[in-house]
Design goal:
This protein is of the alpha+beta class. It folds into three domains: about 35-95 and about 130-210 and about 300-370, 3-Layer(bba) Sandwich (FAD/NAD(P)-binding domain), CATH 3.50.50; about 210-300, Alpha-Beta Plaits, CATH 3.30.70; about 435-535, Glutaredoxin (3-Layer(aba) Sandwich), CATH 3.40.30.120. The chain is built from 13 helices and 29 strands. Strands 1, 2, 8, 9, 10, 11, 19 and 20 form an eight-stranded mixed sheet that branches. The protein has a seven-stranded mixed sheet with strand order 6-5-14-15-16-13-17, sandwiched between helices. Strands 27-24-28-29 form a four-stranded mixed sheet, covered by helices on one side. The chain starts with a helix and ends in a 5-residue tail after the last helix.
């Protein structure tokens, strides 16, 4: 069954078939940016850089997506980034949209939650979409960008086998079906996954925890009338389900089921089709009709590299950090890595910012990784209590949560992915506005419906000055970096007032190209804005 799925994906998602490049007999050509790894992180970064006009080459050792559905939960912030890149709406149209989750303990429902109870957002809290589709939509948009002149090249079945970092570039050995060749990269971005060959070549490792537990994934194809919600069971009532279980829907009538099996298991035995079917039958009930599309057993770690930048080699996604899949923090945090890195690398290559700006990528995304690791570790400890007294506490929390709202925040079946706020970090300017907490300095922009449009659609991938109910200062660029102006009124825009003014009479917000807030004021002068922009460009106050 695993082979059948692999064959289907390889035929349907052979996105960049191998083609000879004729480089074997040539001297090593130099490229401004080389990305190793064509997964969702590498492709998002390539698309962002290419649309900015920065030439980028993607090297992938396959010709398309990997095996299995892999990541399936894509969060609101990821969809907002994909919207800015041009691929978001197709993802939402194909995906299964959901905002509601339910938590069970045994046969009893403990409570349900809504991840997006308010209106005025373009994107839902989450969609479920198999990773092959997510990657395909990014590559489709890369093809559109290429047709419009974006300098993006993808080479499938080009595997990096060795590297040598030098003063102003990295020399790469690349193997292909037609033989090896060499290229030079001014900047090398490793998006090559949890088993990163680039990381191994550099002798770098991870710090963190490896959890002694195993989880069985079963992707099943069936027609069912279950609602499109995330259902999670502690101590599930069905036979042989293990310590926890998870059920949610994907496109094409595929359902993802997870069973927590424990540590001391016979993996080969557990993956036998009859044993997998016994567990699924117990969950779905006698007579349930389904096909097994994909099965796998995984363990997980919560760990990261100490630094994500190593001179001219920069790590993003799973090559830099790994977390539990509970909470959907892996691919979502990786896309935020790409969003953070793209504008900084583009500015450095174009000479608009000092090279030191790239150090802030490591600073901010290490901060994000630590937040994800903390949440993932807490979720794992709640899912699998490490002592009898911990289990008593966990079950008491579940019992209280049925009837008492105060206990529900303590229930942890995986804190679901939210974007990181860069509180207190080096690129932040002043926060002079007594405004809403969620749009404070360091936070990503919060969407707001504006008549027939949305705020995030009007924040392009460049520095933008948003003036709400106040006049704009007279400033259009700082040190050669252009500044886009967006003037809005709260009249007829209640979501804008609620999310950006609160009780203030007016506000000025400075956004970075990745839509994070640099600074905010009740009103601002041109000098105020210039100082804040220089901070955000890594030039200091």
């Amino acid at each position: 069954m695993r082979t059948e799925l692999s064959d289907r994906y390889s035929l349907a998602f052979k996105l960049y078939p191998y083609a000879p490049v004729g480089a074997q007999a040539q001297p090593a050509q130099r490229h401004p940016v080389v990305i190793v790894g064509g997964g969702p992180i590498g492709m998002a970064l390539a698309l962002d850089l290419g649309r900015k006009g920065t030439p980028v080459l993607v090297l992938d050792d396959h010709e398309g997506v990997g095996q299995g559905s892999r990541a399936i939960c894509f969060a609101k912030r990821t969809l907002e980034i994909a919207n800015r890149l041009g691929a978001g709406q197709r993802m939402i149209d194909k995906g299964v949209v959901w905002n509601v989750g339910k938590v069970f303990h045994g046969e009893d429902r403990v409570f349900q939650f809504n991840l997006q109870p308010e209106d005025g957002h373009r994107c839902p809290a989450f969609i479920n979409l198999q990773q092959p589709y997510f990657e395909k939509f990014l590559v489709d948009e890369i093809r559109v960008a290429q047709s419009e002149g974006a300098p993006i090249e993808i080479r499938g079945r080009n595997a990096v086998t060795a590297m040598d970092q030098r003063d102003d570039h990295v020399l790469l050995d690349v193997d292909t079906p037609d033989g090896p060749y060499q290229i030079e990269a001014e900047w090398l971005i490793a998006c090559d996954g949890a088993r990163s060959p680039v990381r191994d070549m550099m002798g770098l490792g991870f710090d963190g925890r490896v959890f002694e537990d195993n989880f069985l994934i079963a992707d099943v194809k069936m027609t069912a009338d279950f609602p499109t919600e995330r259902w999670f069971w502690f101590e599930p009532p069905f036979k042989d389900a293990g310590q926890s279980a998870l059920l949610h829907k994907q496109p094409d009538d595929i359902w993802r089921i997870d069973f927590q099996l424990g540590w001391d298991i016979d993996r080969e035995k557990e993956l036998r089709e009859d044993n997998v079917r016994a567990r699924v039958d117990a969950m779905l009930g006698e007579g349930a009709e389904y096909e097994l599309e994909w099965t796998s057993i995984y363990t997980f770690q919560c760990r990261r590299m100490r630094e994500f930048r190593h001179d001219r080699v920069i790590f993003a996604g799973d090559s830099a950090h790994q977390v539990s899949p509970f909470g959907a923090r892996g691919a979502n945090s990786g896309v935020q890595d790409a969003d953070n890195l793209a504008w900084k690398l583009d500015f450095v290559i174009r000479g608009l910012a000092p090279e030191a700006l790239l150090d802030s990528y490591s600073e901010e995304r290490v901060h994000g990784a630590d937040e994800n690791i903390l949440n993932s570790t807490r979720a794992t400890d709640f899912l699998t209590p490490k002592s009898d007294i911990s289990k008593v506490f966990r079950n008491a929390v579940l019992e209280l949560a049925r009837d008492h709202a105060f206990a529900r925040p303590l229930v942890n079946s995986g804190r679901l992915s939210v974007p990181c706020v860069y509180d207190g970090l080096s690129l932040n300017g002043p926060d002079m506005l007594d405004g809403p907490e969620r749009t404070r300095v360091g936070a990503p922009a919060v969407d707001a419906k504006l008549g027939k449009t949305y705020l995030l659609d009007r924040l392009p991938g460049e520095f933008t000055l948003l003036c709400v109910d106040v006049p704009a200062p007279d400033i259009d660029e700082v040190d050669g970096v252009p500044l886009t102006h967006l003037g809005l009124t709260t009249r007829g825009n209640p979501f804008l007032k609620e999310r950006y003014l609160g009780d203030a009479r007016g506000a000025v917000y400075l956004f970075r190209p990745d839509q994070h807030v640099v600074a905010r004021w009740p009103e601002a002068s041109a000098e105020d804005v210039a100082v804040a922009m220089r901070i955000a460009l890594g030039k200091g106050a």
